Amino acid sequence: MDRKKQNSEHESLNQSKIIQTAIDLINKDGLKKLSMRNVANALNTSAASLYWHLENKYELLQLLSEQICKTISFPDSSKDWYEQLIELGHEYRQALLSIRDSFEIMTETVPMTPDRLQLIENIYRILMNAGFGSEDVPATASLFNNYILSFVRDEMKQVYIANIQGLEVNVAFEQARKMFKSLSVNKYPSLVELADYSVSVNSDKQFEFGLHVLLDGLNKRLKQ
């Protein structure tokens, strides 16, 4: 490739285009199939052109984690800490749900980018202002973060499993409910009795329940 054409190709690319293309590929095929070559092919360019803008795939993952955090709106700091974390928890979850395999993107990268650091800063500030001790704040923030990440991972896994079976999620859940209902009452009385509640398509309600349980426990500890 001559230098003039190469420079033109570099100039036509930017990190925003690369990141959006990577997101589109992940949402279609999953993170495991993401490669610099695949991104380059989707952009009708060469892998070498990507390396003009990014050092390696790890930097791309870092930028993807930054993109997730960039879409998060932070709650009004004048609100009660409990209410702030409820709002932030929902915001964080929705941001994660926007990109398939976001759990892996977040857990396989170190928080080093501005918006991701700002997310941690805001959680720390909320907890410190609530009265949590300095030693407890990082551990509490990690617990909050891990709950949200793990919940979203399970949500996405359910969708993935249903898709493999060629089913909509609600259909897969209904099949699972019927399976629990059909179990031996003598062997699994609790599973049969609670089948309607064990398999639920209402992820919003489940997430809200878990978030309140977590924060209720933290509130109790705070008041000790």
Secondary-structure topology with pairs:
Elements: H1 3-12, H2 15-29, H3 36-42, H4 47-53, H5 57-70, H6 81-97, H7 102-107, H8 114-130, H9 136-164, H10 169-181, H11 189-193, H12 195-198, H13 203-222
Helix pairs in contact: 2-3, 2-5, 3-4, 5-8, 6-8, 6-9, 6-13, 8-9, 9-13
Explain what this protein looks like in three dimensions.
- With 224 residues, this protein is an all-alpha fold.
- The chain has 2 domains: 3-54, Arc Repressor Mutant, subunit A (Orthogonal Bundle), CATH 1.10.10.60; 72-222, Tetracycline Repressor, domain 2.
- It has helices spanning 3-12, 15-29, 36-42, 47-53, 57-70, 81-97, 102-107, 114-130, 136-164, 169-181, 189-193, 195-198, 203-222.
- Helix 6 (81-97) packs parallel to helix 9 and helix 9 runs antiparallel to helix 13.
- It is flat.
- The termini are far apart.
